[in-house]
């Protein structure tokens, strides 16, 4: 592991008045004054010979997560919430004793009852308290339409940026899409460019992005780079609602974007969208992303070493809510909105017997949701896109608030009358990445992942064993988002929708209440990979 790509190995180890943390595999210690002991968490500590010139604290994909929650990886400990996130950022800034910036990579508002009931207003107030300097507009920030977004922009005390949005009628950026801004961190003048995934056109409800085009790559903001070069900032950064997945290496759209750039024009990329941990370097440009829901904070330190050279050092820390005293102003803000949601969010809908996680391409929770939508539409087949399954369900009571976070978008469930040929085309699109990107109910699909895109399906059989034939007529239960062409299902746009008058959340609630308690969703394969000659 390189010194400029380190990870926080431990969150907190106390020994008297000393706090121990690990970086780059070496143990270092920090003595704490009693006055700050209660406020300072395990933080990223610079190497002894280094001096931190600038610290950039990052968050992405906050999704209205105003309150802490537990995760399958947190061992029962609460993580995140705006009060904890602010306390962590404040302590990381105090520990640094250096100039700092706070940047966000988009998808701020959509996702929880406390945010959605007021169309994101509570989240913008919370991020104002957080002290953001600039943020990318994310695709889900458009989920309530441009008019609502513009209202939220007017309420924000920070810059929202989007350089790659074009009005199709004029060929220019719409007035609300500011491409870049100059922000200050002490004496540092930092140019920040906003970028959101070009997939926005297909992953946001069509009526909310109609007339907008989302360009991709460096060319989408080349003019902004030219303007920034003329303004001669000390540093240039991108807040990009676009991401990657990293294990032994990183792959994804943000990697491709970084490869179109170089470190002479961009100094740092703050990424998002994929809800993943990223701390890597591409063509000399550091790229950082702090997972999701404010459960982590990214730390990018510009340091000068003993030899006078400068470099970036990256880290991502889990924001455990039981480590620091939560920020009182943030607690008060959350408490002010809580009465609006408590009467709904605390209602227990079902008891969950097993961990219903969202890992892999096919999992019991996805099948359960697809079953719920097939039941409410009384369709032959139902399809639930994986991107619409927003959280796991853990053993214990599942409340309305939990299920709202599972289905925050309020998509209507509809049925479509389709031919077997069209159904096959829909399912081939689901397999376009080589493995299923949606869950199916009412059918079993055998496919060969090695065959060319568009020709992977070997057979489709309904639940009763009947084979789906090209000229047969079938009903498909699906969300109005997908039926309207979202997710790339453009082939469904011409088909007349038959409304069920039930939203996805209510369909899942009704199905969970119908199942034996505690709910133990069966693990079964409905997409079956096969090898054919």
Describe this structure in words.
The chain is of the alpha/beta class. The strands form eight sheets. Strands 7-6-5-4-18-19 form a six-stranded mixed sheet, covered by helices on one side. A six-stranded mixed sheet has the order 9-10-12-15-17-16, covered by helices on one side. The longest helix has 18 residues, at 328-345. The radius of gyration is 24 Å and the shape is globular. Residues 1-49 have low confidence and may be disordered.
List the helices and strands and how they pair.
Blueprint: E1 13-15, E2 18-23, E3 26-31, H1 34-37, E4 51-59, H2 82-96, E5 99-104, H3 113-116, H4 121-130, E6 134-136, H5 146-155, E7 159-161, E8 165-167, E9 180-185, E10 188-196, H6 200-203, H7 206-209, E11 212-214, H8 222-231, E12 235-241, E13 245-246, E14 250-251, H9 253-259, E15 268-270, E16 277-282, E17 285-290, E18 296-304, E19 310-318, H10 328-345, E20 348-352, H11 364-377, E21 381-385, E22 396-399, H12 400-406, E23 412-419, H13 420-430, E24 438-441, E25 443-447, E26 457-462, E27 473-479, H14 480-483, E28 498-503, H15 504-514, E29 527-529
Parallel strand pairs: 4-5, 5-6, 6-7, 10-12, 12-15, 15-17, 21-27, 25-29
Antiparallel strand pairs: 1-2, 2-3, 4-18, 8-11, 9-10, 13-14, 16-17, 18-19, 20-22, 21-24, 23-27, 23-28, 25-26
């Amino acid at each position: 592991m390189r010194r400029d790509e380190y990870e926080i190995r431990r969150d907190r180890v106390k020994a008297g008045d000393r706090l121990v943390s690990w970086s780059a595999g070496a143990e270092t210690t920090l003595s704490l004054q009693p006055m700050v002991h209660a406020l300072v968490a395990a933080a990223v500590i610079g190497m002894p010979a280094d001096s931190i010139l600038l610290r950039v604290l990052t968050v992405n994909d906050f999704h209205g997560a105003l309150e802490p929650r537990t995760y399958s990886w947190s061992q029962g400990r609460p993580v995140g919430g705006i009060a904890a996130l602010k306390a962590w950022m404040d302590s990381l800034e105090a520990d640094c004793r250096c100039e700092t910036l706070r940047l966000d990579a988009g998808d701020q508002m959509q996702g929880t009852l406390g945010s959605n009931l007021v169309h994101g207003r509570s989240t913008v107030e919370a991020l104002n308290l957080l002290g953001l300097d600039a943020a990318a507009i994310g695709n889900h920030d458009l989920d309530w339409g441009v008019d609502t977004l513009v209202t939220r922009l007017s309420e924000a005390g920070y810059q929202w940026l989007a350089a790659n949005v074009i009005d199709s009628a004029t060929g220019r950026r719409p007035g609300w899409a500011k491409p870049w801004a100059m922000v200050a961190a002490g004496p540092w003048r930092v140019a920040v460019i906003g970028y959101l995934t070009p997939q926005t056109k297909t992953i946001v409800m069509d009526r909310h992005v109609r007339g907008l085009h989302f360009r991709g790559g460096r060319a989408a903001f080349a003019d902004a780079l030219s303007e920034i070069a003329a303004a001669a900032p000390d540093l240039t950064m991108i807040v990009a609602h676009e991401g990657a997945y990293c294990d032994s290496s990183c792959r994804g759209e943000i990697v491709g974007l970084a490869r179109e750039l170089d470190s002479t024009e961009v100094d740092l990329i703050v990424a998002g969208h994929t809800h993943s941990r990223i701390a890597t370097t591409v063509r000399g440009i550091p790229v950082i992303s702090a997972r999701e829901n404010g459960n982590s904070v990214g730390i990018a330190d510009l340091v000068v070493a003993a030899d006078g050279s400068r470099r970036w050092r990256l880290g991502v820390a889990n924001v455990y809510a039981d480590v620091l005293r939560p920020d009182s102003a943030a607690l008060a803000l959350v408490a002010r909105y809580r009465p609006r949601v408590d009467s709904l969010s605390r209602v227990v809908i079902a008891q969950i017997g097993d961990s219903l996680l969202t890992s892999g391409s096919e999992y019991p929770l996805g099948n359960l949701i697809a079953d719920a939508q097939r039941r409410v539409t009384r369709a032959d087949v139902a399809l639930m896109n994986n991107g619409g399954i927003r959280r796991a369900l853990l053993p214990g009571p599942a409340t309305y608030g939990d299920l709202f976070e599972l289905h925050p978008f309020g998509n209507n469930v509809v049925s479509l009358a389709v031919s077997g040929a069209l159904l096959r085309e829909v399912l081939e699109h689901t397999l376009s990445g080589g493995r299923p990107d949606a869950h199916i109910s009412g059918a079993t699909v055998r496919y060969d992942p090695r065959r060319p895109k568009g020709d992977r399906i070997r057979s489709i059989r309904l639940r009763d064993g009947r084979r789906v034939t090209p000229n047969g007529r079938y009903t498909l239960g699906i969300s109005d988002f997908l039926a309207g062409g979202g997710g790339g299902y453009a082939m469904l746009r011409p088909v007349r929708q038959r409304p069920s008058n039930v939203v996805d959340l209510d369909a899942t609630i009704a199905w969970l209440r119908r199942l034996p308690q505690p709910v133990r969703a069966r693990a079964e394969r409905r997409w079956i990979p096969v090898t054919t000659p």
